[in-house]
Design brief:
Number of helices: 10
CATH class of the largest domain: Alpha Beta
CATH superfamily of the largest domain: von Willebrand factor, type A domain
CATH architecture of the largest domain: 3-Layer(aba) Sandwich
Helix content: 25-40%
Structural class: alpha/beta
Length: about 375
């Protein structure tokens, strides 16, 4: 019975996975998974999935085309007299919420967008302990009994003692024949990463642009965290000045005034230098803006990128969230770096429908 339950459960999981994969673009553009994330699980709304099954009725009971009736009589329940609208007493369709682990969600994203796996760079920061089965011992729990070795030792004993009968080859291990797997603890370094999100919060960035950034950051987090054991996140907001903030403030801050992008790059470099050594951390930096910047600040931004940020990051992604108020000029300046630096990606995000394409552009490098 337990095997049937497990088989049915696995079949249901495959159906859910197929539904999520086929509707992935809808989930991403609408942001339906955002805000429902726990520590390890995401709750996903799906239309109810009905598994087909046979039901056995009573012998001789009426079925389709059977039973009393009059010519022209409508099939199905009556609709009542015209003008007699009444409240219904039957339940309607339900939305089924299923849970997927972050690993499953990352796998679906990778399959749908054909994303290459990330190759970590730094592996010196976190050391985990893992059990590795490398030997055999004479004692241990029955769950670790080595059947093949136990059988061979019992066979040798019976042949040596002359109790083995080739016509009736029954092998009965005794206590002294039993062999058990043994293990030892192995310390393994694990790659760690830090993600730096920078966002323009000047007056030209609307709430819709910030929501696009929030959706995209959720999927970037999902993919990167699937490749590292430890991931830290840094949030920086800027207008004419930059500040490090928490996640909630990052997505809900509304400022006014001008824009000076170099302030965010300077603060990011300062934080990375102080806390995240390049030989120990994989660094991912993403900057979202409407492309509006104080004109004299552009050369300073490019200088910081070339000399300080790009040499230390695995990937620098610039996402230009189109705004009716921004000039959009900064995109062209960053775009000029593409041919010179392999770890730079630029993406235009005019609306929610472009989020899926932008995610593929950012994560498709495999860096």
């Amino acid at each position: 019975m337990s095997q049937r339950i497990e088989r049915d459960h696995q079949r249901f999981r495959k159906l859910v996975r197929g539904k999520v994969k086929s509707n992935l673009s809808k989930y991403i553009s609408r942001g339906e998974m955002i805000g429902k994330k726990g520590t390890d699980l995401v709750s996903i709304p799906l239309p109810a999935i009905n598994l087909p099954q046979f039901r056995y009725g009573n012998k001789g009971s009426a079925g389709v085309g059977q039973g009393p009736g009059q010519p022209g009589q409508p099939l199905g329940p009556g609709q009542g007299e015209p003008g007699e609208a009444k409240a219904g007493d039957q339940p309607g369709g339900h939305i089924l919420e299923v849970e997927l682990t972050m690993e499953e969600l990352a796998a679906i994203l990778g399959e749908e967008l054909a994303l290459p796996r990330i190759e970590p760079r730094g592996k010196k920061n976190i050391v985990t302990t893992r059990d590795r089965y490398t030997g055999i011992r004479q004692t241990g729990p029955e769950s670790l009994r080595h059947f093949k070795r136990t059988y061979k030792k019992a066979l040798k004993r019976q042949i040596t003692s002359g109790t083995y009968d080739g016509g009736d080859p029954i092998i009965i291990p005794i206590r002294a024949d039993r062999q058990y797997r043994s293990w030892k603890e192995v310390k393994q370094p694990q790659a760690v990463a830090v993600i730096v999100y920078m966002m323009d919060v000047s007056g030209s960035m609307t709430d819709e642009q910030k929501e696009i950034v929030r959706i995209e950051a959720f999927w970037i987090d999902t993919w990167i965290k699937a490749h590292y054991q430890g991931v830290e996140t840094v949030y920086i907001v800027h207008d004419a000045a930059a500040h490090q903030v928490d996640e909630h403030t990052f997505y809900h801050t509304r400022e006014s005034g001008g824009t000076k992008i170099s302030s965010a790059y300077i603060l990011a470099d300062k934080i990375l230098t102080a806390k995240y050594p390049i030989d120990e951390w994989n660094v991912y930096a993403f900057h979202f803006s409407d492309g509006d910047n104080w004109g004299d600040d552009v050369p300073h931004c490019l200088e910081i990128l070339k000399k300080k940020l790009l040499p230390r990051v695995n990937l620098f992604g610039y996402g230009q969230v189109e705004s009716p108020y921004g000039s959009g000029e900064f995109y062209e300046h960053v775009h000029e770096l593409l041919g010179k630096s392999k770890n730079v990606v630029c993406s235009r995000i005019p609306d929610r429908e472009a989020i899926l394409k932008s995610i593929k552009e950012f994560l498709g490098t495999g860096r």
